[in-house]
Amino acid sequence: MVWTTETFLGVLSVVAVVMLIIVLYHALFVMVDLRKILRRIEGITHELESVLLKPLAMTDKILSWIMEHLEEHAQGKKKHKKTIDV
């Protein structure tokens, strides 16, 4: 069999199409795996966020409670001083 330019280009184009189909097939599986990985990362992120935010929220509540009591105590002293001055 004699390989002419036309037959060589025809075989080459068929091989290129087959390789493109194989690449697209693998790309599909890579995309599906990436979606699974991103879902796992999102789940881990939500869990980590909840683990970190619970103590921070509790600390914020405690600090606001302390500040309220300090302000009440400071206002009590001011009122007490005013009553002594009068």
Can you tell me about this structure?
The protein is mainly alpha-helical and 86 residues long. It contains one helix and no strands. The protein has one helix at 5-85. The N and C termini lie far apart (121 Å).
Structural class: mainly alpha
Count of individual beta strands: 0
**Average pLDDT score:** 87
H-E string: H
Radius of gyration: 36 Å
Strand content: under 5%
* Helix percentage range: over 70%
Coarse shape = rod-shaped
Annotation field: number of helices? 1
The span between the termini is 121 Å
Low-confidence spans: none
> What characterizes the major β-sheet?
none
Layout of helices and strands:
Blueprint: H1 5-85
Question: What descriptive keywords fit this protein?
Answer:
single chain; 86 residues; mainly alpha; 1 helix; 94% helix; rod-shaped
Brief characterization of the structure:
With 86 residues, the protein is mainly α. The chain is built from 1 helix and no strands.
